[in-house]
Design brief:
The complex is a heterodimer of chains A (411) and B (503).
Chain A lengths: L1 H13 L11 E11 L6 E8 L16 E8 L2 H8 L6 E3 L5 E5 H6 L2 H10 L8 E5 L3 H6 L9 H14 L8 H10 L4 E7 L28 E9 L2 E6 L1 H10 L8 E6 L7 E7 L5 E5 L7 E14 L10 H30 L17 H7 L1 H8 L1 E12 L9 H4 L2
Parallel strand pairs in A: 1-4, 1-5, 5-6, 6-7, 13-14
Antiparallel strand pairs in A: 1-2, 2-3, 7-8, 8-9, 10-11, 11-13, 12-13
Helix pairs in contact in A: 8-9
Chain B lengths: L27 H11 L8 E7 L6 E7 L5 H14 L14 E4 L2 H9 L2 E6 L5 E5 L28 H11 L5 E8 L5 E8 L5 H13 L8 H8 L11 E3 L2 H9 L3 E5 L5 E4 L3 H5 L3 H4 L2 H31 L6 H11 L6 H21 L5 H12 L1 H5 L5 H14 L5 H39 L1 E2 L2 E2 L45
Antiparallel strand pairs in B: 1-2, 2-4, 3-5, 4-5, 6-7, 7-9, 8-10, 9-10, 11-12
Classes of the chains: A alpha/beta (411), B alpha+beta (503).
Family (chain A): Belongs to the GerABKC lipoprotein family.
Protein name (chain A): Ger(X)C family spore germination protein
Membrane topology (chain A): Lipid-anchor
């Protein structure tokens, strides 16, 4: 008996330490870039590896680059990772990958779905990794990211994406959500749109009516994250600007947004705009009445609050109730027209919605085949009769009610 | 290692002690010669005797004693002077001592002389008189140095049985508090005293203890530290099964809960049986502090318990096997600091843990005047110098320091060793299988602990298995709400709180 126990205890040590690896023997990949090549089935993979020694106090490495960006060809992410080892000294790990960047060209070609499959198989790529579509090639995009304040790129991506998602100008585009929506075969997936290439938009644009690259900018890092790339069935079909992305956030039950500072037309002096903080405490309420043979009815109610931040026109909205009523109407009308415009575009151009509304109709079918037969993308949504109503619960004016009386100041 | 799982073999081979059953004769000359021979008079410098002729009956008498362990003044004042000067009809009316015993054989004579009594032989009488004049030297009552408390009594036991019993009786004014005694040791006989409150104690536990004391078969057991190892159930176990404390107030509180206290001469501490994990986890001060404060220290101690066993092992496990679990900034910081370190990470951790244990051990053994050296050397090993020499990475210093520091929060000497040994087991487990191994090792360790019993009382009772108790386990209740005695001991009287009006 003793001998048996002894032998079985010793057996344990036969397996010992097989996947043990010392930290310094690994190199940590922060971003993966995927580009098209001329050959079908072969892609160009770019890996951005962070340099642990930069940004620590442990001495040495201070004159080294904060990261190493390498590009190679391959057919999928994981084998390319091994090829890279011919010029990267350490074993690569993708555990800490923050973003997967794909070029717009590749995204529009529709090959992305095949490449990203690897992410669902390997344990190395987290489901929370964000998908970014870059206007230029991904290799170029990653090579040109030069954060001014953050030494390490992973920190830059983390802060940049978290903050931009909070303001709603870019969507939450995790790999998980991509698979969820794409495999669900309904709705549209919104990926983050970003670029280093600037091409200023002609004509007027308000604070969020841009896509990345169009925002007038001086100084700072060249990289702009703004708007979203629309994916239908794994293939990119269009881009949405920041404003439309925000509207998508407002209407989508599953997306969160913390802060939406925006301007609305001033109803009394149309040359000015009123700046306000849009606060939405509850997600949009979506009610779908499915009709098999006539257009489905979708009713969306959004309850929100407005805190007015600035009234450059100095019109007294705070204490004049007639003016206030005008402002109230103006804000609602503005939001409703923006939302309706986006919905119309999605119905007519995209044939599906980026709001994940199919979630609300699924429970009206007996089983999956019945739901698939009804076909959200082709039959239900494009023909649906959609009404969006915004419900302004509270209009607040900040801590000071009166603005400066111009005629008194300038006498 | 299989001994860990096995109870110690019971010692059954009772060797027959040599008996010196010579009866005392009536001839004083014979008795004197015999006793001189027994104690090697002349060679044995402090063995003294005195002849005299008693005034009250004009008979020759001889007095034998060890001059080093008796009170000389008392012998003079209470024995010799009355014998020489006083009138009377009987010896007991002549000598002015508080205790006078008649003994009949030399076996008893030897025992009495060894325990500090003077033996008086009388011509023509076949009995001897034993007079208690013992005065063993001992340290005066000091402060409890190893179990110090800020709030609470400061007295500690000292190396004298009588003083220790007096310290306990001073706290427990209960006529049912019994001091029972047994002799252990075949050659040098020592007295083991066990104290209990007779209408609380569980008789099974008491009989179990008596049985184990009877089974001790050895020449001598000098003190409770040695006695502990003779009466414990599992000598190879990593967990202690008998509690050791130097605080009389702690002993008193155990007595009042139905536990048994064991005291001996030559030990500035007592043993408490039976024991549970909680006895080791608690400090007496937890009860002296108010409810919230006491529980706060308990929370800290629990956290320390977790950290000291787990932090090094967790660090090894996560960094070697699960680097994806680390936040990127920490990961990069550790990686950067390890770039120039030549050793594997587990080796680094072991270096520091062993260094810490070395400093600790050396710190205890080093003579007081050399004490400060330890600080300097220790700071060098554990500090910046080792990091700058690229032997270890700076994060290891923090891990080892936390692991070492938190081990001091576990004050009990015995459980402290348990925890320190456990730490190394866990490091090895985490080093071979990562968090999986650590979880497995912890499970085995915990299962073993839960399977233990001390004098029939489960180690984690009254929490698991559940018993009615004062609720004093991880945290404690407000003292007014403690109604029951620990039910896991099956005390004769379970209810602690007489007042039934409030609850």
């Amino acid at each position: 008996m003793k001998r048996m126990i002894c032998i079985s205890l010793l057996l344990m040590f036969l397996t010992g330490c097989y996947d043990k690896v010392e930290l310094e023997q690994q190199s940590y990949n922060v971003a993966i870039g995927v580009d098209q090549t001329d050959k079908e089935g072969t892609y160009e993979f770019t890996f951005q590896i962070t340099n642990p020694e930069v940004g620590t106090t442990s001495g040495g490495g201070s004159d080294e680059e904060p990261n190493e960006t390498v590009t190679t060809n391959g057919s999928d992410i994981l084998t390319a990772m091994n090829t890279v080892n011919s010029f990267v000294s350490k074993r690569m790990t993708l555990d800490h990958t923050k973003v997967i960047v794909i070029s717009e060209e590749l995204a529009r070609s529709g090959d992305f779905l095949q490449i990203i499959q690897a992410a669902s198989r390997t344990t190395q790529i987290r489901r929370a990794t964000q998908i970014v579509v870059s206007k230029e090639s991904a290799a170029e995009f990653l090579n040109n990211i030069k954060p001014k304040m953050e030494t390490r790129t992973h920190k830059y991506f983390q802060y940049m994406i978290t903050r931009a998602t909070q303001t709603g100008i870019i969507p939450d585009a995790s790999v998980h959500r991509f698979f969820q929506i794409t495999e669900g075969d309904a709705d549209l997936f919104l990926a983050i749109y970003a670029t280093n290439e600037h091409e200023e938009k002609k004509g007027e644009g308000y604070e969020d009516q841009y896509v990345a690259g169009e925002i007038p900018q001086e100084g700072g890092s060249d990289t702009q994250f703004m708007g979203s790339a629309v994916f239908k069935e794994g293939k990119m079909i269009d881009t949405l600007d920041g404003q439309d992305t925000r509207i998508a956030h407002v209407l989508d039950y599953t997306l969160d947004m913390d802060e939406l500072l925006s301007t609305y037309p001033d109803p009394i002096r149309p040359e000015y705009r009123v700046a306000a903080d849009y606060i939405q405490k509850t997600p949009a309420e979506v009610e779908i009445q499915y009709n098999k043979n006539k257009p489905t009815k979708i009713d969306v109610t959004v309850s929100f609050q407005i805190e007015v931040l600035a009234i450059p026109s100095l019109v007294n909205y705070s204490q004049n109730s007639a003016h206030q009523e005008l402002l109230r109407k103006a804000i609602i009308t503005d939001l409703e027209s923006k939302a309706n415009k986006l919905i119309k575009k999605t119905q007519e151009e995209y044939g599906s919605d980026p709001f994940y509304w199919s979630l609300f109709i699924r429970d009206q079918f007996i089983d999956v085949p019945a739901y698939e037969e009804a076909d959200w993308n082709k039959k239900i949504y494009p023909n649906a009769d959609i009404t969006v109503s915004f419900n302004l619960k509270r209009l607040a004016f900040g801590k000071m009610l009166n603005d400066t009386n111009l005629s008194e100041v300038r006498d | 290692m299989f001994h860990f799982f096995k109870k110690a073999k019971k010692a059954n081979t009772q060797s027959k002690p040599q008996k010196n059953n010579d009866p005392i004769r009536s001839s004083l000359k014979h008795n004197t010669e015999h006793i001189k021979q027994l104690f090697s008079y002349g060679t044995n410098k402090d063995f003294s005797y005195r002849d005299l002729i008693a005034k009250y009956n004009q008979k020759e008498m001889s007095l034998f004693y060890y001059s080093s362990i008796v009170n000389g003044d008392k012998i003079y004042e209470a024995i010799i002077r009355p014998l020489l000067e006083a009138e009377g009809n009987e010896l007991k009316n002549v000598v002015t001592v508080e205790s006078l015993t008649e003994i009949k054989d030399f076996d008893e004579v030897i025992e009495h002389i060894n325990s500090g009594k003077a033996i008086l032989f009388q011509e023509g009488t076949a009995i001897a008189f034993s007079i208690d004049v013992a005065q063993f030297q001992f340290r005066s009552i000091g402060k409890a140095e190893n179990e110090s408390a800020i709030k609470g009594p400061q007295e500690a036991f000292t190396e004298s049985l009588n003083v220790n019993i007096s310290l306990v009786r001073k706290r427990v004014h209960d006529k049912q508090l019994i001091t029972e005694s047994k002799q252990v040791g075949k050659r040098s006989k020592s007295e083991v005293n066990f104290l209990y409150v007779s209408d609380l104690v569980n008789d099974d536990i008491l009989n179990n203890l008596k049985k184990r004391l009877d089974e001790i078969n050895t020449d001598s057991v000098r003190n409770v530290e040695l006695l502990e190892q003779y009466i414990e159930e599992r000598p190879y176990s990593i967990f202690p099964s008998i509690h050791y404390t130097e605080r009389p107030d702690k002993a008193a509180s155990y007595l009042e809960d139905g536990y048994i206290i064991i005291l001996m001469d030559n030990s500035a501490a007592c043993l408490v049986v039976p024991v549970t994990f909680w006895s080791f986890f608690h400090a007496q001060e937890d009860r002296y502090l108010r409810f919230l404060y006491g529980n706060f220290t308990r929370a800290i101690r629990l956290f320390a318990f977790y950290l000291t066993t787990m932090i090094s092992a967790t660090y090894v496990g996560i960094t070697n096997f699960h680097s994806e679990m680390l936040p990127p900034d920490l990961l990069l910081a550790i990686t950067a600091s390890r770039e120039r370190v030549p050793f594997p990470l587990i080796f680094e951790v072991l270096i520091m843990e062993v260094a810490f244990e070395l400093i600790r051990e050396a710190g205890i053994r080093i003579p007081n005047p050399l004490g400060p050296t330890i600080g300097i050397v220790g700071a060098l090993i554990l500090g910046q110098a080792a990091v700058e020499a690229n032997i270890i990475s700076p994060i290891i210093v923090i891990v080892a320091a936390v692991s070492g520091l938190t081990s001091f929060a576990i004050a009990d000497v015995s459980i402290n060793f348990t925890v320190r040994i456990t730490r190394f087991i866990f490091i090895a487990a985490a080093g071979t299988y990562g968090m999986f191994g650590l979880a497995g090792a912890f499970l085995v360790w915990f299962m073993y602990a839960a399977s233990l019993k001390s004098f029939g009382v489960p180690f984690f009772s009254p929490l698991a298995p559940y018993f009615k108790s004062p609720g004093d386990t991880v945290f404690r209740k407000a003292i007014k709400n403690e109604i029951w005695r620990p039910g896991n001991l099956l005390p004769k009287d379970l209810r602690k709180k007489r007042d039934s009006t409030s609850k």
